[in-house]
Amino acid sequence: MHGSGQLRVDKAVDGWADENEVEKQAAMPRLTKLWRSPPYAQLVGIAMLAWGLASGHSYAYFILLRWVIFGVFIFLCVRACQLKLHGWVWTLGIAAAIYNPIIRVHLNRELWSEINIVTGGILALTVWVLRGKSLA
Questions:
Q1: Bridge-partner residues for 7, per DSSP?
Q2: Which of 61, 59, 66 is nearest to 99 (CA)?
Q3: Whole-number pLDDT of residue 131
Q4: Mean pLDDT, residues 18-45 taken together
Q5: What is the pLDDT of residue 134?
Q6: Dist CA 115 CA 129 (whole Å)
Q7: What is the dihedral of CA 132, 71, 73, 95, to 10 degrees?
């Protein structure tokens, strides 16, 4: 009964859904889905890394930055592992190791600035790479 508004089970949306709603969701562009459920972890990470590029921050800010970015990369690494994106698991795992707050990597400010730019780019890429796949 196509178009009658009758409820049915659809595996694509995990549960009960109106046929019209399922069709709308299937046609929704990926960018629209992105704005319905923003990637908060990546956005916070990118913002903190960008803010860290400015001079004048206390040492405490960089300790906080390490903890937050480490957590974001571990979270994304687990997500990539669930999606079986093994190249991304390695990339995100190495990035997490660089920001590890327990066993610290000691580098000069210029090198950290370059690493922050690169890892900010990696975070930006994960917004699309990790959102375009489903766990099913």
A1: 18
A2: 66
A3: 78
A4: 64
A5: 57
A6: 20
A7: 170
Angle at 70 between CA 69 and CA 73, to 5 degrees: 85
Contacts of residue 112, defined as CB under 8 A and 6 or more positions apart, other chains included, come to: none
Token digits for 83?
């999606």
Express each pLDDT in 82-113 by its tens digit.
999 999 999 999 999 999 999 988 888 889 99
Distance CA 42, CA 45 (A): 5
Site of tokens 């921050």: 57
Please state whether 107 falls in left (phi above 0), alpha (psi between -120 and 50) or beta.
beta
The Cα 102–Cα 97 span in angstroms is 10
Which H or E run includes 68?
helix 59-82
Q: How confident is the model at residue 35 (pLDDT cuts 50, 70, 90)?
A: very low
Contacts of 115 (CB under 8 A, 6+ apart): 98, 107
Tokens of 72: 């974001």
Integer Cα distance of 101 and 6 in angstroms: 54
Distance CA 118, CA 102 (A): 22
